[in-house]
Amino acid sequence: MTLSRRSSLKARLRNFEPLLGTFLRTPSIHVCEILSRAPLDVVCIDAEHAPFGPFEIDACAFALRASDMPNLVRVPAFTPASVLQALDSGATGILVPHVTTVTQAHAIVRAAHFGPGGRGYAGSTRAGNYSGKTMAENLADGTASTAIIAQIEDVEALDALEGIAAVDGIDCLFVGRMDLTVALGAQSPDDQKVIDAVKRVCQVGRKHGRAVGMFVPNVEDVAMWVREGASFFLLASDQVLMLQGARDLGAAFNTAISKP
To answer: Fewer Cβ close by (within 10 Å): the C or N end of the chain?
Structure first.
């Protein structure tokens, strides 16, 4: 079976391909459509830190899916219902914040897949092509293409890191570096104890065959983290990109009018 761009995300994570994405923090199908034209590998709908309810997630997942743009939903917190809604809406996968225990990691994997005690089945969803897929096709597609990413950002997660990384079905460990900085009592994401913790996530992730992803404050740092074993980067957001574009335009304008 040939995978579409959207449904190949899981395989690309597992192959440790270098992937670039950004966070979506504006609930707008127009922003989704525009980002789908950018040279990105994935867009992550940030329902943890932005005003996304079920309707907004559904609309943005629709717009990104229609453009064959791989799309993740960072759910506000792990509940089976939040995972079900994101995946039924047609999201390519989920990014779950504050994963701290092996038990929780197992529960996330179970909730993301059809089966006993797991994701409830409905073939009439967008993910099921509105009953256009057979049950067998829908089950197979869910197994083959649903990307499951655990966010590591707590001291408790560092303590349980080996066990979380070993959970079958976790495709990627994503470092929440800002929360990790706060959790470690550091004053900066560049504090050495934060850097050491992130390096450990990279080492443990690769040891267990999991991709490692992260946000980095400076894109210049990407090369260093690739050398450490990271391959998946969610950088900036639609809001940051829009603001930076306006700043660059303003600076260019001021330069132009200041010339004699």
So the answer is: C
